[in-house]
UniProtKB/TrEMBL annotation:
<protein>
    <recommendedName>
        <fullName>Phosphoesterase</fullName>
        <ecNumber>3.1.4.-</ecNumber>
    </recommendedName>
</protein>
<dbReference type="InterPro" id="IPR000979">
    <property type="entry name" value="Phosphodiesterase_MJ0936/Vps29"/>
</dbReference>
<dbReference type="Pfam" id="PF12850">
    <property type="entry name" value="Metallophos_2"/>
</dbReference>
<feature type="domain" description="Calcineurin-like phosphoesterase">
    <location>
        <begin position="1"/>
        <end position="152"/>
    </location>
</feature>
<dbReference type="InterPro" id="IPR024654">
    <property type="entry name" value="Calcineurin-like_PHP_lpxH"/>
</dbReference>
<keyword id="KW-0479">Metal-binding</keyword>
<comment type="similarity">
    <text>Belongs to the metallophosphoesterase superfamily. YfcE family.</text>
</comment>
<dbReference type="InterPro" id="IPR029052">
    <property type="entry name" value="Metallo-depent_PP-like"/>
</dbReference>
Length: 165
């Protein structure tokens, strides 16, 4: 099962639209996961229409309309793994232990908020993944998103993709 992870799209405040490279990749995967901070419903509508399956949450910059449509935390079993999705996980220091305690029933936690790509494993095995942002790189050198394969209870081919600035 091929997955695409994205977050912090911030359309239209940080970009007028989602990057073409991201939208092309959306059509090539089985599941798209968005970890919040959409800022507009139109972007949610675009990803819903282009994704075979969309799993998504709202973020701290998402208003009432998006919060009515999306949960704060989403959970799904994909490729034999239990995924949890949330926007914010707090400071980087202590993140693995804190998230392992908050999501003991998850194998993979997808999060956003920082716009900083992240891939680590907590004691006990929880994998934490942040795809960065495809539209607002902040202090990062590139706009980014992640793809991976979830199959037979394992993650493979985890790739951080760079988009043109």
């Amino acid at each position: 099962m091929r997955l695409l992870l994205t977050s912090d799209t911030h359309v239209p405040s940080r970009a007028k639209r989602l990057p073409g490279g991201l939208l092309t990749a959306v059509g090539e995967v089985d599941v798209v996961i968005h970890a919040g901070d959409w800022t507009d419903e139109a972007t949610l509508d675009v990803l819903e229409s282009r994704s075979r399956r969309l799993i998504a949450v709202y973020g701290n910059n998402d208003g009432p309309a998006l919060r009515r449509r999306l949960p704060e935390v989403a959970r799904a079993e994909l490729g034999g793994l239990r995924f949890a999705v949330v926007h914010e996980t707090g400071p980087a220091a202590g993140r693995e232990r804190r998230c392992a305690a908050l999501y003991p029933d998850a194998d993979v936690l997808v999060f956003g908020h920082s716009h900083i790509p992240w891939d680590s494993t907590a004691p006990g095995g929880l994998r934490l993944l942040n795809p960065g942002s495809p539209t607002d790189r902040r202090r990062q050198p590139h706009h980014t998103y992640l793809t991976l394969t979830a199959e037979d209870g394992a993650l493979r081919d985890v790739v951080l993709h760079r988009l043109p600035v």
